[in-house]
Amino acid sequence: MIGREAIARLIPHRGAMCLIDRVLEWDLERIVAATRTHRSPAHPLACRGRLRSVHACEYGGQAAAVHGGLAAEAAGQQALPGLIVLLREVHFACDYLDDLEGELIVEARRLMSAASSWQYAFRLQHAGMELASGRVAVMARPDLVEALKSGGQPDC
To answer: What is the pLDDT along the chain (156 residues), one digit of tens a residue?
Structure first.
């Protein structure tokens, strides 16, 4: 199992914005992760104490980022930071995530990988029920490498 500390080394998200708690399984094509961060009263994406289902897209994007980091590490490289540039075919089965007890399961499956962009399909589940699904496209931002190395936050 890959825990939160290892995840934080793989992605640019820091502190409470690192939404994935642990990786349950992964291979070069997909990742399955788990989290309880949706229950945090101090969730950085919550508005008026509620976490809307639209934020499932960020969970999917972060699962993709963790997968990219693990795949790069397995190849003896370091993944470039990236930004979500497109969401497609996104579907939601609930309005809010914060009221769900227990863990959320996040799965991301790589659809396409190039030197400067990636596409993933994602889905978010709770207790066997699909809460959200969609596709996310990410563009590499090599210009952010130095800012992240120095501990700074990207100026996006």
So the answer is: 899 999 999 998 889 999 999 999 999 999 999 999 999 999 999 999 999 999 999 999 999 999 999 999 999 998 888 899 999 999 999 999 999 999 999 999 999 999 889 999 999 999 999 999 999 999 998 776 555 555 555 443
State the CB neighbour count (10 A cutoff) for residue 12: 22
Site of tokens 């708690």:
21
Q: Which residue has the tokens 């890959």?
A: 2
Q: Say if CB 118 and CB 82 are below 8 A apart.
A: yes
Instruction: State the pTM of this model.
Output: 0.91
Place of tokens 């496209």: 137
Structural domain containing residue 111: 4-149
Asked, for residue 154, whether it belongs to a domain, the answer is no
CATH number, domain at 90?
A: 3.10.129.10
